[in-house]
């Protein structure tokens, strides 16, 4: 089928997305056998919409998946979404609020039904957005973390861990979100550096012989103090250990204790201990058997334990206490203090450490196996330095709080007997207490969303059943993820995979960078610098967007994304499209099989381009093996734009008019077809569209997506042809540069006179004089020997070769010299202005980073332009014999 004059991404993308999915092109078959490549998608939240992180992550995954599928691997990519407990419940609660309803009035059962209804109608929009991005998942195996199969797996894991003593229930200090009204794991608390204050308070000794000064950033929590701690070797307080203090505002007597935790150098060396509202204090409280007092309720409102401050919010309480303590003389002073404030990762509310009965996983035994698996190389991180991050967290891991006070999620399979108090944890819903037959009440909490996600690599393949998918595709080949969920997800999958499958969940973990704006700032709605992937795909096309992401996905470097870069790669798509139209025009109406006949006699340019294709293929395959996506994109871009389009297509126009046009057309077709297969994993839509228009040998696959990925062709490699062709191109480039520097019009022909002692070089240039004449736009190509000077010529000195271009009668030496001098003066003045600005300390310190960067880039551009003008003046002087 013919290609249109211009490339229309929207029509092409929708056509192939629909056809690939309709014909179930990417479905895996465990019975196929052979080498296996498998991945599970990091499941986006069912509430989500495609953002830059998703776009990068899934573009890289899709490139790997398409490459391995084309390379003959039995390939499975499992898609799916996460139920996202807190996020989804918040979305539906907002919907109810707009209707004037409340989930508590609705009741748990009807609320959960309402969430499922929302999920069916509005949830999962991101799946269609991923399809639009071109991801080649096996959609027949799409999973949801709360579907029937995964729910069964979650319950089985919970029961087994409970039976082995690795899951337990206890009253413990946890992170609590007063807005979401639920416990949070340590990882769900994000710490922000904030300007605050350090309040110094005077606690009187019970015997009225003096005071001890303590410091706190949160005066409201002192109402829950149950001790003051000092270091056991601090001589200032040795005699006071064991005595009592009187807690201001409440009058409660609290002991002075000695503990190594205390830093003698900080403040007064005495520390208030609030076990009910501080994690370090909680540990001290356990060691010393202190009372655990909570002074706030679930909404962070002061409770009855707060005495006269009961009923106030924690913020109101702080303000009132500071006023009271100033008046009573309890407040010694207030100092500015920088501190890290923990906030809920979902709603940004300040998190409160709270005493609560929760469910926990005892993770240290699981973590030990997961640490060993990485140390022994069973799973490797790419780049490797992320292993240090993984080890640092895993070696200091604390028990995982897995219960959440929500209604949406996997309900904890635990029941409590109303008669004997027995706790029943079961795979099936029990009818009555197995001990006393009394009625049971079910635990109201649900599991942390990350609990089900931790099982994703094996639960999606059918576990706990021993399915064919599980036997074939586990462990998966690679996990592609961002660094920000190494702890949330990667580490937990490692622990659960090793525990329940006896094997790591993935062989490689490729950790990609973060997509930032062009100034290097993290994208956020508050900054107003978010780039919408859907809008970008509308404007520039999906392939251009995907290629941009791959091109900038260098290991260890965040991606600075600007729309002009995407526009640049849209131009690359247009370049490829126009090159394909040219090739198809040459093939029109002719029988061409996209194959090179064995023993075919080829020209130097034909041998060169085939050798370059083979070298490119080897380099791209090696880069895929090392997850060097930016290198893959760079190799393919450079070859396509510069070697194929800029050079070979121009050369082919001469060869098609030469003595063997059919061979020239065959080589054109072969190179384009190979190139499309090489490019397809990065830019699937445009390559499929072009490939369908090419002639193919009988027995070829119906789709490029299923065509074999190229291997290097040893018979095509020809180092001699590459060296010879590079020599010819070097001469042509040199002549073109002189023409540009001297402002010689394209239609104006120059003669080329060369001098060399190498007979091989002389023979090469004379044999390919027609090629040089056509591409360098020169007249005669001839050789001179000896030291004879060519009068009035510009001279190029290449390695072992001297090129002379007679300019007499072609260039107005005086006029051209004057023009270049004016240009030089203009460039020098502009360069001087930029240099003064960059030397200005005030400009460098006050101007935004992107403004300074633009000035620096402008300076480099001016320097290059000035160098060209200077070179032009030198050539003129040389030609004039000066």
Number of strands: 29
Provide mean pLDDT, rounded: 91
Spatial sequence of strands, sheet with the most strands? 6-5-14-16
**Shape assignment:** globular
Major beta-sheet overview:
4 strands, antiparallel
Distance between the termini: 61 Å
User: Are there runs of 5+ residues with pLDDT below 50, and where?
Assistant: none
Radius of gyration: 36 Å
The class by helix and strand makeup works out as alpha/beta
The DSSP helix count reads 28
- Helix percentage range: 40-55%
Description:
With 882 residues, this protein is α/β, with parallel strands linked by helices. The protein has 28 helices and 29 strands. The chain has a 4-stranded antiparallel β-sheet with strand order 6-5-14-16. The protein has a 4-stranded mixed β-sheet with strand order 10-11-9-12, covered by helices on one side. Strands 27-26-29-28 form a 4-stranded mixed β-sheet. Strand 5 and strand 6 (182-184) form a beta hairpin. Helix 16 crosses helix 17 (542-551) and helix 20 runs antiparallel to helix 21 (661-679). The chain starts with 8 loop residues before the first helix and ends with a helix. The mean pLDDT is 91.
Element layout with pairings:
Blueprint: H1 9-22, E1 36-40, H2 52-70, E2 74-78, E3 80-81, H3 85-98, H4 103-106, H5 108-121, H6 125-133, E4 143-144, H7 148-163, E5 167-177, E6 182-184, E7 189-204, E8 211-216, E9 227-230, E10 244-246, E11 253-258, E12 270-273, H8 279-288, H9 314-328, E13 331-344, E14 352-361, H10 364-375, E15 380-382, H11 386-394, E16 400-401, E17 403-404, E18 414-417, E19 423-425, E20 440-442, E21 446-447, H12 449-453, H13 456-459, H14 468-473, E22 476-482, H15 486-501, E23 506-512, E24 515-517, H16 533-540, H17 542-551, E25 559-561, H18 563-587, H19 604-625, H20 629-656, H21 661-679, H22 684-691, H23 719-741, E26 750-755, H24 759-767, H25 769-776, E27 778-783, E28 793-798, E29 801-806, H26 813-838, H27 841-846, H28 849-879
Parallel strand pairs: 1-2, 3-4, 9-11, 15-23, 22-23, 24-25, 26-27
Antiparallel strand pairs: 5-6, 5-14, 7-8, 7-13, 9-12, 10-11, 14-16, 17-21, 18-19, 18-20, 26-29, 28-29
